[in-house]
């Protein structure tokens, strides 16, 4: 944890951030202000989004279980990779929780109204730039410091 990881570990550690990025992209498209912004990048993301839609419904559950048990909890992998996998999983879970809470328990007038539009615009940009910042820190060989999430990721990784 004291020296910079090699370039292949840094690139490999960026892969777990693809799912939070994908989920952020899908939630942010519901905000009316972000759709024209995202149309410019549609050609970059469409192949990835289509490939995820072809996967079976149980794939994400299997991905979480396998990534947690086989990467995060195993000491054979470098700490840098395990930390970033845990961060990617926690960010994806937090985004899904926010999506479920706002979609199921908020009144429809607020969720689809002007307040919901402003909420998803703010939340989409904030979470999108948080994921981009995590990828940037990972590529530079640094540990991303997202409040509460990075602390939870450190707790999940055994040191001994």
UniProtKB/TrEMBL annotation:
It comes from the Eukaryota. It is found in: Plastid, Chloroplast inner membrane; Plastid, Chloroplast membrane. One of its GO terms (cellular component) is chloroplast inner membrane. InterPro entries: Tic20. It is a multi-pass membrane protein. The chain crosses the membrane at residues 52-71, 83-105, 117-135. Keywords: Chloroplast, Membrane, Plastid, Plastid inner membrane, Transmembrane, Transmembrane helix. Involved in protein precursor import into chloroplasts. Belongs to the Tic20 family. This is Protein TIC 20.
